[in-house]
Structure formats: C-alpha cells, structure tokens
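Appendix B: a complete holo record

For completeness, this appendix reproduces one full record from the ligand-bound portion of the collection. The bound molecule is copper (II) ion. The inputs are the chain sequence and the ligand SMILES; the output is the full three-dimensional arrangement of the complex, encoded as structure tokens. No fields have been trimmed.
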Amino acid sequence: MKLIPPIRSLARACCLVCLLVPATVAAQQKVEVTNAWARATVPGQKVGGVYMDVRSPASARLVAASSPAAATAEIHHMRLENGVMKMSAVAGVDLPPGQTVKLAPGGYHVMLIDLKKPLATGDAVPVILTIEDDKKTRQTLEIKAEVRDVMGGKPAH
Ligand SMILES: [Cu+2]
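The structure of the chain with copper (II) ion bound, as generated:
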C-alpha cells in the first residue's frame, strides 16, 4: 500500500511532462517577421516609425521592442479620433495563431524614440522584439528594418 502514492505521483509527473512537451515545442516555433521597414527621417527628427508583418504559429503577444539606434522604443497605435489622428503607447499587440498581423502606417508601429542619428534611406536598423507566449514565456527576436524614403512619395534613387 505504501508504494501507491509515489507511483501515483510519478504517473502524475509523467503526465505533466507529456503535457508540457507539446507546449514547449509550440513555443519554440519561430515567430516570422517579414517586410520590416522604417521610415527615413530628416536631421533633427528624434523619432522614427518601424513597420512590419508579424506571424506567430501559436497565440502570442508582441510586448516590447528596443533598438541600438534609439534610446528607447515603444509600441504605438495610431487611430482616428474625432477626425484627428492620435498616437498612443500600448502594452502590446496580440498575435493570433497563424495570422499575419500588420504593423503599418496609420495603425500599430514600433516607435524609436531619441534616435542616435537620422534613419537614412538604405540603412538597415536592428530592432529587437520581445514576444510573449500564453505561458508568459518571453523570447526575443532581432530583425533588421530597411529604411525607406516614403515622405516625398517617390524613392530617393
Ligand atoms: Cu508612434
């Protein structure tokens, strides 16, 4: 009789491992970032927007960003409110499983604040994204955003 509890707990531990394995595998599946770009800035401009398409295989959330090109980076959302475009910092962007979430002008973006130098067309700006899964496990992902000149409506070259 004395053997039963340990065996039972062993079985339980085993079950727990079995349950945990698929979750771990899912967490390790790569979050894909494509079409990452940043808007070119003019000298003296201290902030710059970074845009991209993000696709996570499992339910996750983009919770933070940073970049060596700027003192800080925030996740922002732009929306039209009473005819005025308003920009505000948000805690994160939900990444529903298998869906491509677009960070694009007029919506979500990563805002680089206190740029160390202007973002010049053709540069590649490193941006480190922090992605959190449903279990609150965080992973970082470094991307390179290609700087594009979209201010004048046509490419610089
Ligand atoms: Cu912004």
